[in-house]
């Protein structure tokens, strides 16, 4: 969630006035009684089912006071409206930072498979393709950028070794 929070703050810092208003409206919608704080009950009522679970609420609540203020809600807005981070197909954690995805399934419309670093490292996940076909999400972006410019480069990018990544 720390990475998601940094991403959200960076986006908000550069947001247009219109978008800032939209985000304030998003907060007001969550804060049903208008006291400037979102309780777990208010959260569960308004947040889409994908995110409405207590673990995510606790992760958003950095001050640990049991309610969310505007700054604490920011990552939620970006998760819901912009970034839509996938969940790990192993442990079901939200994937906001570095993660691995099956290269062969990606963009094929049969549902891609995404894994967090520790599930990838453990290799305990069942998937039709070998884990050596997985790439990290940063390499994936590079691959598609190069593919657009030069189709011949695809093979080069394919050889970016994901195992060079050391996940903490
Ligand atoms: Zn996982
Ligand atoms: Zn696959």
TrEMBL record:
Keywords: Calcium, Metal-binding, Zinc, Zinc-finger
PROSITE patterns: EF_HAND_1 (PS00018), EF_HAND_2 (PS50222)
GO molecular function, one term: zinc ion binding
Ranges for domain EF-hand: 18-53, 54-83
Ranges in coiled-coil conformation: none
UniProt-recorded name of the protein: EF-hand domain-containing protein
The species this protein was found in: Buddleja alternifolia
Lineage, opening ranks: Eukaryota, Viridiplantae, Streptophyta, Embryophyta, Tracheophyta
